[in-house]
Amino acid sequence: MARARAEGVDFLAARVAGARGPLRIAGAGRRQDYGEPVAAEAALLETAPAAGIRAYEPAELYVTVGAATSLAELDKVLRAEGQELAAEPLGGLDETVGGVHAVGLAGPRRLALGTLRDHVLGCQLIDGGGAVLDFGGTVIKNVAGYDVSRLQVGALGTLGLVTELSLRVRGLPPAELTTALECSAAEALQRANEALAKGMPVAATRWERGELHLRLAGSEGAVRRARHELGGEEVAGANEKIWEPLAQLKAERFAAAKKVWLCALPPLAELPFDDLGLIEWAGARRWFFDDAPADVRGAVAAAGGQATCCRRPEGDDTPAFPTPAPVNLAIQRRLKEAFDPRGIFNPGRFGYL
Amino acid sequence: MAIEPAKLAGLLAELKEAVGADSVLHGPAQLEPYGCDALTMYQRLPAAVALPADAAQVAAILKICHRLQVPVVTRGAGTGLSGGALPHEDGVLMVTAKMRDIVRIDPLARTAVVQPGVRNLAVSDAAARYGLFYPPDPSSQVACTIGGNVAENSGGVRCLKYGLTVHNVVALRCLTAAGEEFEVSAADAGYDLLALLHGSEGMLAVVLEATVALAALPEARATMLCAFDSYQAGGDAIAAIVAAGVVPAGLEMMDGFAVEVVEEFLGLGYPKDAALVLICETDGLAEDARGQLAQVERICAGFGARDVRIAADDAERERMWRGRKAALPAVGRRATDYYCIDGTIPRHELGATLEKISELSKKHGLPCANVFHAGDGNLHPLIMFHAGDEDEARRARDFGSEILAACVAAGGTVTGEHGVGVEKLNEMCLQFKEEELAMFHGVKEAFDPAGLLNPGKAIPTLQRCAEFGMMHVHDGQLAHPELERF
After folding, report:
1. Nearest-CA residue of chain B relative to A325?
2. In terms of domains, do B233 and B255 share one?
3. Phi (first) and psi of residue A207, to 5 degrees
4. Which of A9, A20, A149, B7 has the fewest Cβ atoms within 10 angstroms?
């Protein structure tokens, strides 16, 4: 069903339709260093005209938001109703909703909340020909047509200029607390996964330099009980000190590092250099920094995972992403061709495409 | 257009060579049981049925069909409700029934690796010894397969809390239509092919193996049942429960007529003469399950709930659920045939949409019982009719189509969890405009350039929509706004 089109979208569509060469799409422009750089000749196309909250129905648990809206603004509107995004994006409050979705990475609370693509209900995008398309909607259950909305998450703006997103929201948890205990990386993986297998309300885990933090969230009773059963010392002010900086990429080691690896792994896989890392998601995501060995990517792949190089010092030519297997690559290329036959959106962003 | 006899003979010979003569069926008598899925109003025999036993045989079948340009329709248990596994008359129906191994379970990582023909419930049964289960629970879970669940992105009662299939599968090993193997995983950078394959109705790839996420079996469950005297009150109570931040593991409703039909069948003692009966279950740690149910009870009281019952034990809990779970068979006893519709609407539209369905029931002169996943606004109106009566069958289809149009008009969708299949091709023209449908065809071509996997399903051709005459939505304006659209 065609929805009323927000102001600014037609302007952007006309820019795309009239483009005579490649375009570099930018919201707040805060994540241009993630992935490979866009080809230098690309003209800047700012998503700013697609800003603003279009519809917010707290009782229906969704918000429809223009892609250029800042996370800070969205957060303020949702908190006023005692709600938050159902998925926690990885990114600063000064970033745009479209930006964190194009990157597609989730914050520390993935264990409780899932990832961004889990909670995208619908999207509006401008395709490579300048047509404005709507996919999905605002309801949770919807299997009409292929799931193009989820496909856009993490596509780094190469499959279209996303102008609007409908996202699931949820009520803030009634109770939260964080505990800390000292243990090795291997023991941390074991403890965190055991807690999850027992159904404990663990929203986030973080292990670094011999210390495991568990963020518990849920009802008062459940949090109290998990606190008792899982042990550790309660940490005051943990959200401000630990979790928010981690979600906003402002944790101490992110700020200082010249090289940053983000690794997705089976949670219990053990890497020989785990001790050097910051381990989240009960082991399913691990960050490594300047002191990591040269072949992080090879070691992670051997353990059944994937390593993305998020930041590189000047002169380091490590590719940002591993090249997909040939069949996957062929499919991805044909998808790109379908959405952007002229190849104008963010050329070069994935390197291999 | 039937397949040429010489081509069929060549196809059968090659298939028999690849999977063994016993695993290739042909001729009307052998093909008859495969003529439809659970949507029996569409029937068609394939040229042949092939029953591969392993990944190598699936690859062999696909390569043969690709070389001979023969369509392939993949079928799990055939429990689909939209004709997604309806055979192609010139094609091979590839049935995954033999591929039912649970390859391994990793209890601490909470994953299971399963073949596509493994039944949904078999995963939970096997995981139970580790205190784990596989959350998505489509009502056909005793029979339906994981491969089919991926194809349809199946939901179920628990998905409000635990998510759909797409939220519970972490990796897939697949074959393209050309028989090339590839893997997709939640860990992949780049395009999210894993998400795209969910709900793709067997048109993009064939699943060889799925790695599914398991969740901790809840320590406690708390269940209540109550009645409301109007659609509006019941609908508003549902919206209020969800808005309050309660996330039940089941939030189901039945209308008064559905209750009457179920009572006649089972005599469970559900409240009589109610507009709606609500069943709500919360689960998790004991503290969560009890606390959340108490909250639900308070909210329902505020909307005039009566006959509030809280299950005292597991036996009573089972009894409360039995009526909801037996609703379809109960309707099947009352009517010779029934047609199960699957639209989703925003929760606040529940009351108004039920009123609309009631009006449509009178207009078409066909009774309709409503059972639904109220928590996520997913309606399953059950239209009763006689399939033998051509006029009734036509009215049933029109009635269903008008319900779906009402769902789209209310801001919802033509299919929440059953898929488009062949059933809702026309209604897709209502929900999407030409450029969007063209993009769907582009996605299909990216995976299957030759168009051999389940051709003709899920996405209508632009020509079909033009003929259907509903293809004229531009900028929110219908071409003929003066016409009433249901």
Report:
1. B182
2. yes
3. -120, 135
4. A20
- Map residue B389 onto helix, strand or coil: coil
B234 belongs to a structural domain: yes
Cα A236 from chain centroid (whole Å): 27
In this complex, do B166 and A133 lie within 8 Å of one another by their Cβ atoms? no
Residue B349 lies in a domain: yes
Which residue among A151, A171, A321 sits closest to B195, beta carbon to beta carbon? A151
Distance from CA of B30 to the nearest CA of A (A): 33
B109 CB neighbours in chain A (<8 A) are: 193, 266-268
- CATH at B266: 3.30.70.2190
How far away is chain A from the Cα of B94, in angstroms, using its nearest Cα? Answer: 22
Query: Roughly how many angstroms between the first and final C-alpha of chain B, as a whole number?
Result: 36
C-alpha closest to that of B64 among B43, B47, B78, B79: B47
- Looking at A271-352, list the stretches that DSSP marks H as alpha helix, in order from N- to C-terminal side: 296-302, 326-339
Contact A61 B243 (CB under 8 A): yes
Domain range spanning residue B235? 220-329
**In A, which residues are within 8 Å of B376 by CB distance?**
139-141
Q: Do both B313 and B353 map to the same domain?
A: no
A302 touches B: beta carbon within 8 Å: no
CA separation for the pair B345, B235 (Å, rounded): 12
Quick check: is B424 in a domain?
yes
CATH number of the domain at B361, please. Answer: 3.30.70.2740
**pLDDT 10s digits, A101-121:** 999 999 999 999 999 999 999
Residue numbers of A between 111 and 150 with CB closer than 8 Å to B:
114-115, 117-118, 127, 131, 133-135, 137-148, 150
Taking chain B (486 residues) in consecutive chunks of 10 residues, what is each chunk's mean pLDDT?
Answer: 89 98 97 95 96 98 98 97 97 98 98 98 98 95 97 94 97 98 95 98 98 97 97 93 92 96 94 95 94 96 97 95 90 92 92 95 97 93 94 95 94 92 94 96 98 97 84 40 36
Q: Which of B274, B309, B329 is the last residue of a domain?
A: B329
Residues B344, B295 share a domain: no
User: CA of B418: which chain A residue's CA is closest?
Assistant: A143
Residues of B within 8 A of A105 (CB-CB) are none
Note whether B346 contacts A57, CB cutoff 8 Å.
Answer: yes
Dihedral sign for Cα atoms in the order A5, A7, A8, A11: positive
Can you give the length of chain A in residues?
353
The answer to whether position B151 is within a domain reads: yes
Helix B327-334 / helix B314-325 crossing angle, nearest 10 deg: 50
Which of B409, B413, B444 is facing A137, going by the closest CB pair?
B413
ipTM exceeds 0.95? yes
